[in-house]
Amino acid sequence: MIIREKTGLFELLFATKGSVLPRILPRILAVSLLALIVVLIDGWVTSLPHLDAAPFAVFGIALSLFLGFRNNAAYERWWEGRRLWGQLVADMRALARDCRVFLPEDAPRQKVLKLALDFLHLHRINLRRLKARDSTQAWSGEDFSQADHPPCAALNAANVAVAKAAPDGFARKALSERLASIALAQAGCERIAATPLPYVYSLLVFRTTYLYCLLIPFALLEDAAWITPIFVAIIAYVFFGLAEVTEELAHPFGETVNGLPLDAICRTVEISLAPHLDIKAPPALQPQGFYLS
Amino acid sequence: MIIREKTGLFELLFATKGSVLPRILPRILAVSLLALIVVLIDGWVTSLPHLDAAPFAVFGIALSLFLGFRNNAAYERWWEGRRLWGQLVADMRALARDCRVFLPEDAPRQKVLKLALDFLHLHRINLRRLKARDSTQAWSGEDFSQADHPPCAALNAANVAVAKAAPDGFARKALSERLASIALAQAGCERIAATPLPYVYSLLVFRTTYLYCLLIPFALLEDAAWITPIFVAIIAYVFFGLAEVTEELAHPFGETVNGLPLDAICRTVEISLAPHLDIKAPPALQPQGFYLS
Amino acid sequence: MIIREKTGLFELLFATKGSVLPRILPRILAVSLLALIVVLIDGWVTSLPHLDAAPFAVFGIALSLFLGFRNNAAYERWWEGRRLWGQLVADMRALARDCRVFLPEDAPRQKVLKLALDFLHLHRINLRRLKARDSTQAWSGEDFSQADHPPCAALNAANVAVAKAAPDGFARKALSERLASIALAQAGCERIAATPLPYVYSLLVFRTTYLYCLLIPFALLEDAAWITPIFVAIIAYVFFGLAEVTEELAHPFGETVNGLPLDAICRTVEISLAPHLDIKAPPALQPQGFYLS
Amino acid sequence: MIIREKTGLFELLFATKGSVLPRILPRILAVSLLALIVVLIDGWVTSLPHLDAAPFAVFGIALSLFLGFRNNAAYERWWEGRRLWGQLVADMRALARDCRVFLPEDAPRQKVLKLALDFLHLHRINLRRLKARDSTQAWSGEDFSQADHPPCAALNAANVAVAKAAPDGFARKALSERLASIALAQAGCERIAATPLPYVYSLLVFRTTYLYCLLIPFALLEDAAWITPIFVAIIAYVFFGLAEVTEELAHPFGETVNGLPLDAICRTVEISLAPHLDIKAPPALQPQGFYLS
Amino acid sequence: MIIREKTGLFELLFATKGSVLPRILPRILAVSLLALIVVLIDGWVTSLPHLDAAPFAVFGIALSLFLGFRNNAAYERWWEGRRLWGQLVADMRALARDCRVFLPEDAPRQKVLKLALDFLHLHRINLRRLKARDSTQAWSGEDFSQADHPPCAALNAANVAVAKAAPDGFARKALSERLASIALAQAGCERIAATPLPYVYSLLVFRTTYLYCLLIPFALLEDAAWITPIFVAIIAYVFFGLAEVTEELAHPFGETVNGLPLDAICRTVEISLAPHLDIKAPPALQPQGFYLS
């Protein structure tokens, strides 16, 4: 995720970090070139049909409809992903406090928390589809990487530890409710990761955008011949740019420029749980070149 | 559901798998043909009235309104269906963990989980209105297919097993809350399956789309006579395409190209519950030709 | 509610069952007639002022705004009503299971469920403002029709039965939570039934629609004189049609064509509770001429 | 709140009760007069610049954006306020039932309910900022009007009564959960009452509306000179009307024509609680001249 | 937050307090000046190309899409922030009542409440990124400012106090649920504070707005040459104004004119808890020059 303080005019207009411009530039140039060719043919070779701009209005409305919908849906996926991780942060903190209240002994209490931290990292690794186990130290010392579903295996182990350590029904009830809440947030994240936006929307949006950019030069020949390629470039920037942004936001757990900073959130949880584990809290993650992983 | 990694330009423009184009092509050709006939009559037979494009703006606005609303409503149904199944996944995992914490003996614990798995498959079969019992092995060994409402019968059996096995009030309370949460997600799915979008919207959308496609040629005669059929084809593609997509998404449990992958989700639950049943987890379902059932 | 399988083209274009066309036809004809008069006066009597279509754009935008808002609000009321009844279905099933788990004896258990079924029917009767007690057999044998608030009286009786039969605190807690959840869904339904959409929106929408239909002919005189009445008829169909639909959906518990099928939902609950009452389940309600009551 | 059954055409077009027309008439007349002056100057004094209608499109779009957003936000505040009061109704009924289940003696049970009813009225008085204690009889006989926060004081007293009367932990847990749910709905209402929509939106909306109404005559001079004032009046009616409606809905607890009927809701609760207090239920409040307070 | 009663016409049109006009004036003047230069060059130096206004329609649609989305997202962040603080108010009140019900002794009860109040202030300080400890008296007398995460440290201390003072499982369960609810609201606030709207939207919105303002003069040359700078100024006011407002609302915890009044909300909680601490309630905070901090 890009973290920038309120930026000045210059950065807003010319920043490329965090911008989608570099990635969509080839497409913008391609449709602009086509527009230029249309203009040149119309001017020097043979007169092409000049369309009225009015019928394009309905086109623009349809495009807004598609892009607006897709943008909203993608942003909601992104924000729901963030909300679920916020829920995980709150649940992990509450789990630590619940353990303090309900589990009388220190060793099993810390065991539960360490397994929960392992779960969190395994959940992150699972969502990001990281192959190798990354550099994070395993908190509990157990290895879940061979399990069919590593995060579930870690949470199962935490559950078994709770079942062993709980002295009475209240403890069992309170801690199993907490673990169920964590499992719900986990399943929510997996839902977002496993269920992309319906593919058919991508088809509709891209095809309509291309058709629009290819036909619009014929509508501009009359009034704005020489400026047509520039106009097409701007329109392509706006529409391809939005399409690209929504593509990234729709996959909120990816390691992209607009992906959620899962590493930093996991670290936040580690900092919050450090006092409960009687260890020194690690430092918070800082953005590297405006990018927080 | 169609599962495709980020596809190249070529696939986006010409893919037919997952596209609605094949299904709506006849309608697109029909209205294009009508447009062509209008153009030919106007050019060769007798002059037809040329309409101004401006009054069509309000038409386009109304169409966007209808289609935009319908699209949002359909997508929300689809996503709510997915969310309810995500809730089911989380609840099944939490049920397994709760059983581990609250039920001291192995046999009744596994009995509850097997009945819950049967419930899940019967729920899926019920939502998809599959007649015959499909190939899924019955987990519990009991046959609920003759019950008035098979999924409810399976959940009732699980409830009776809980009532028998629970050693104290905490266990009864915790497990009955979990079963109630499952019942809530089940009723939510049945609500979506049993209550389609109001039929009157389909009427309004289709009639308005047809009227629009039949009248728009008269507005294009002036400026874009020869290109009119192409224009009409594009507009028809956009509007009929969106209408078709929303039709599929509004029935999220159907076995269509955009339906939810209920088989795969059930398998995910089986994988998650395998360690609790002391069996080897089955493999995750893979898409067949980009399609995940 | 109208229940139709995916219908063919013919039904979509010419169906009147479930369509609002019959009801709004007089209004459509009236404004079309006015448009015809304007055209005739302009052509044969005296030249009327010809307006430019452009200023009507803002009109159309405002209308879309009003109608779009009203449509969304009405649909949300309808869908929230359905969701609350889905919640009731889930709660009734969960109540039956909770009774099985927490109440040791059969007689008081069935008493609670029968009172809950009576509540459900009284709730339905209350929402639909049916005067006379309808044909539904009273399950519990008690008569609540003289109470100040019949559904609440039935639920109070169920609550008293729970208080008497509950053997311990867990049973009291679990069953009172269930009854509270039912009461919440009940109050939600009553909220929708008692609080219509603000009346002022109806005024704004109808007045703006009429003004628009009366003024639009002057904008069409220039280009589309003879086709003006047809155009006005189409626009009136679209806007009056949407206004009429939203009117029905905004009252989701009415016995209208788009009202919710409360009878069928109550029957579903009866089917679900039959095994718990040791009786044969009644048959599910079927649509009568596509209409499910 | 205005309560009208489905009204006829005549009422819809000419009703003033519940309409915002009377309040915005001066502003409509003012901008129409200005438009008339522009037309007269253009016709008789000196030719004024005639603007093209096209650039106004973006203006209209911006206005729709502002007004649409403000309308949605205001309606959501109104509907959330209603939902919170529906929650209060459900919670009060559930509180009465919980008291019946968990509190064995009659006197403290009725004490809790009476304090809760006092809370409800004090909450209503607090939201409406009524100075003097209104005519409602104090149910509990205690006077909370001198407390720093009267509704909280009443709820604190109910809480103390619960703490005294509860025979065991289950009762304490159940009843304190119920009171917490009431407190949540209360805080929600106070949030809406204390946090208006950001003031800056009012500025943007009003300034943009005025600018639009002042400039639009110059765009209409060409085609619709004589009809310009009427057009401006209609546009002003639509936009000022919507702005006024949203102003009222954004303050849902006010005693305005579109405010929520808090008196009637409080009465509904009193009717629901009467059987638990062994008193005769008071009559439901009826609308006075279509207005329900 | 600006708190103004319904203001008169004059204030609405010319108020600068709470308006964004002063901040965006330089940008408005800059683009107006550019427009003026274009007009002058076109009139006195050389004829510039005159564009048709129609292609700008799609531009305006795209801008509305971007700004409308951003406005909605920012307002939802603002309102969610407010809702979370309302949740905190309700939870603090409920915590005080729960302590009264479940904790038999006065001293530990007040200890818990004082630690909770410290948490609330530290949470506010954390959200607003205030460096120095502000003037608020520390309620509990403990110093958490050196902790890695001060609000969490205060809540941990409250949790320990609960664990010590709770006489039975019911008390532990009830109070730990309350603290978990507080932790959830806290994590929600931190989520909003730590996760800005995706930066790429700022880029898209600002770049598109500037491009639009720079190109629109060419479209107005034909019809509205001399009025072009005024038009551009108005359009810039509308679009830059909205962009600026959304920027502020998207950071709801900042000490800006549209930020949430966290000081006043904390004071409300102190007033609500005063009776439970047996102290005199402090006075409610009042707006200073319409501004409530």
Describe this structure in words.
Five copies of one chain form a homopentamer. The first copy, chain A, is mainly α and 293 residues long. Chain A is built from nine helices and no strands. Chain A has helices at 9-14, 21-45, 55-102, 106-127, 150-165, 169-194, 199-224, 228-249, 262-277. The first copy, chain A, is elongated, with a radius of gyration of 26 Å. Chains C and D meet through helix 3, helix 5, helix 6 and helix 7 of C and helix 3, helix 6, helix 7, helix 8 and helix 9 of D. Chains A, B, C, D, E: It is a multi-pass membrane protein.
Oligomer: homopentamer
Can you tell me the overall shape of chain A? elongated
Distance between the termini of chain A: 6 Å
What's the story with the biggest beta sheet of chain A?
Answer: none
Q: How much helix is in the residues of chain A?
A: over 70%
SS-based class of chain A: mainly alpha
Cα-atom radius of gyration of chain A: 26 Å
Order of helices and strands of chain A: HHHHHHHHH
Task: Give the low-pLDDT segments of chain A.
Answer: none
Biggest interface, residues from each chain: A-B, 61 and 75 residues
Mean pLDDT of chain A: 87
- Topology, number of strands of chain A: 0
Number of helices of chain A: 9
In percent terms, what proportion of residues of chain A is strand?
Answer: under 5%
